[in-house]
User: Which sequence fits this backbone?
């Protein structure tokens, strides 16, 4: 199972662009496609069109507000017996809010992977079995994600 916080993976302050969503979807498929994971994506209401129209064959969840997408994905793990149904869970986020959820899944015998875009919380890194930086070339997408300030922006 892949649980993706698409806004976190894009790393932009105002949500992912359509191009971001396509690139993230391609990177997730390239990296984890051999596992054929059931994909569940969460985002804020305002970002839903970019996600829904550019990443198909996934389950979409929406919740706005602080940690809205994160909370919705955590709710899936808690309410839908994920630990009983899946041997591997990939958390597509770098947020430390997933630390407790990752630790609970791991203690239940689930192999937990954290997939991230730019950087990852140290607490989450310690709670999972494996971390994977998704192979996304942000600069070729015509922009930079948050946390990837280019030299031209630093010197301005």
Assistant:
């Amino acid at each position: 199972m892949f649980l993706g916080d698409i806004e976190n993976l894009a790393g932009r302050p105002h949500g992912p662009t359509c191009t971001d969503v396509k690139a993230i979807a391609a990177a997730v498929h390239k990296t984890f496609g051999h596992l054929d994971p059931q994909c569940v994506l969460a985002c804020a209401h305002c970002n839903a069109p970019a996600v829904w129209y550019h990443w198909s064959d996934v389950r979409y969840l929406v919740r706005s507000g602080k940690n809205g997408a994160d909370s919705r994905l955590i709710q899936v793990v808690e309410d839908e017996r994920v630990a009983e149904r899946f041997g591997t869970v990939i958390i597509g986020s770098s947020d430390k809010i997933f630390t407790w959820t990752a630790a609970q899944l791991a203690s239940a015998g689930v192999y937990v992977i954290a997939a991230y875009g730019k950087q990852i919380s140290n607490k989450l890194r310690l709670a999972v079995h494996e971390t994977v930086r998704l192979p996304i070339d942000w600069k070729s997408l015509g922009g930079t994600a948050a946390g990837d300030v280019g030299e031209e922006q630093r010197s301005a």
Notes: The first helix runs from residue 6 to 10. The first strand starts at residue 2 and ends at 5. The chain has eight helices and six strands.
